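[Q] Does anyone have a clean structure-token version of this?
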Amino acid sequence: MADEYIYCHGSRCHKKHTQDRIRGVKGSKVLRTKKIKVSNWYNKMYQYFCSQGCYDNFANDHIEQIVAIAPRTEPLETPIEVSKVKHPEITHNQDSGYSWTQRAWTETKITECDNIDNGS
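[A] Here you go.
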């Protein structure tokens, strides 16, 4: 099976001044968009972009079209339960010359829940 490659979809990939993008012979050299080897190993985004920068350029240039694919007209919500956990003051390494004290503090714990009311 021959290796398959696609070209980076970054809108400014061919403008980056790096040696691996230089192609052509003396007198007619160009900067060329990078090739990306097709692989299932990569995150889906990196199957089409050679870097985070190229992805960001593409997304910034085409944000209106991207949002038009799945517009969001209402907020998403996740049901949660909120609880407070009080932690006491603790002194660490009391027997050494380098002890330190962690002050008492209150932690806010957020737990996702089903939030299904069965009438009970």
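[Q] Thanks! Anything notable?
[A] The first strand starts at residue 5 and ends at 7.
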